[in-house]
Amino acid sequence: MAPALQQLFLFFLSGALLPHDAWSFSTGISSGRANPPAFSARSHGRAAMMMMAKEGDLVRVSLPKPLGIQLEEVVPGSPGVRVAGVVEGGTAKESGEIGADMILLEIGGKDVTSAMFDLVMDTLVAAPAGVPIDLVFRDPSAAAAAAAEAPEAPAPAVAMGVPCELTVGGVTLKAKTGDNLRKTLLAGKVEVYDMVGKMTNCNGGGQCGTCVVQVVEAEGWDPRSEWEAGKLKGRPESQRLSCQTVIQGDATIVTKPPKK
Ligand code: FES
Predict the structure, then answer these.
(1) Hey, what's the signal peptide range on this chain (predicted)?
(2) Which residues on adjacent β-strands are paired with residue 125?
(3) Which residues surround ligand 1 with Cβ inside 6 Å?
(4) Atom of ligand 1 at shortest distance to CA of 242?
């Protein structure tokens, strides 16, 4: 069995995850079948422990075990996990909010977008039973639907088409005022996205927040728009959604900047 799949079964079979005094389950393993486990609840009141909230493409849930979430690596061998599916009997299925392809961003307030699959699984298995676990997911389908509503990048306050230079990681890119920053960086083969962002970004729709860069030494550039500010809450003013930013002259760009 592949390591990732082994971990998946551990996730469902862990005693910590499924206390036998509260839940019964069957896995199909004794018959040699690799079916997803089926759970049946014998306890009551777990719905009272579940909380859900949506904010744009973010889905925040607080769910007790058993979660019943099948996870997989977004990109084999790289950090980041996403939902492969949810199974009957788990609180994720019961919540009605968790579905395939959603990216797991946080567990208990900790960012796991840079965590490898094994660490994510260990964290979930180690979480105590009977206590709701705070999870944050990004729903790519919600991002795509909302992208159509994102405002156009603001018109530049400078003359269009004036040659300028962007310094990115010690490399100088030729650019023009009025051009879109994200498109210019991608055209220059700059790694705008982290591994998860590569797979889940909204393609410049202003929704996902994965194209964030830091713009420094950028004299005369307009401040970020209200839309950007809303998407980048808690980040320094110099951080921008590159897809919503118009180049306005020479600048130094830092890709994948830390949040603080
Ligand atoms: S690519 Fe999604 S916000 Fe910029």
Answers:
(1) 1-24
(2) none
(3) 201-202, 204-211, 241, 243
(4) 4
How far apart, in Å, are the Cα atoms of 81 and each of 39, 138, 237?
23, 11, 29
Q: What is the pLDDT of residue 11?
A: 43
Q: Which domains does the chain have, with CATH numbers?
A: 3-138 (2.30.42.10), 163-255 (3.10.20.30)
Is the ipTM higher than 0.90? The answer is yes
pLDDT band for 36, please (50, 70, 90 cuts): very low
Mutate to test the pocket of ligand 1, among 103, 190, 241 (most ligand atoms within 8 A of CB): 241
| The pair of three-digit structure tokens given for residue 92, joined into one six-digit string | 């994720």
Residue with tokens 């603001």: 154
Alpha-carbon span 57 to 147, nearest angstrom: 10
Q: How far apart are CA 115 and CA 120, in angstroms?
A: 6
> What pLDDT is recorded for position 148?
63
